[in-house]
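[User] I wish I could look at a protein chain and see how it folds. I have put the entry right below:
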Amino acid sequence: MSLAYVILGLLQQQERTGYDLKTECFNQCIAHLWSADQAQIYRTLEKLEGQGWIACTVEIQSDRPNRKVYCITKAGQTELQQWLQTHQPPPILREPLLVQLHFAAQLPDDAIVQLLEQELEARQRKLEECDAIALPSLTTPGISREQKMQRLALELVQRREQAYVEWLRGAIATLQHQPE
C-alpha cells in the first residue's frame, strides 16, 4: 500500500497541512496502522499535487510562516475510490525479530529470552496505545459508518498485537524451561 492513498484518505476527511498530517494523523489517529516521517509526507504531497490528485492553497500568516493547506481534488477522489475498491495482496511482513530468532541457535537461551522480553515490552506498549484509542464499540447506538470502519481496523490491530504478546510469552516460557 502506498503512502499516497493514506494521505488521500486523510485529505478526504478534511483539508490539512503537511504538519497537520504528521502531528494529528501519523503521530496520533493512525499511528497504529501506518507510519510516515515528515520528509516522506512532504515528498508524497508534492507528488500528489503534481498528479493533480490534491490541490494546495497558501494561507498568508503575519506572525508565522505561510501555511500550505492541501485538499483532495475530484481526480484524487476518483483515484481513492478506485483504490478503496481494489483488493490489496497480503503484505510481506519484515519481522526483524523473527529473522534474528531464525539464526539465534548459536546464542545462549538467556540472551534470546532477553531479546524476546524486550519485544514483549514493546508489543505490550503498542497494545496499551491501541486500547487507549477512544472509538465507540461496534454495538454503540448511533455509531457512525466512519467510526465503525475505524473500529474494525483497530480491533484487528489489537488482536494481532495480543496474539504476538501471547506467542512471545510462550516462546519465553519454552526457552526458560529448556536446557541449553
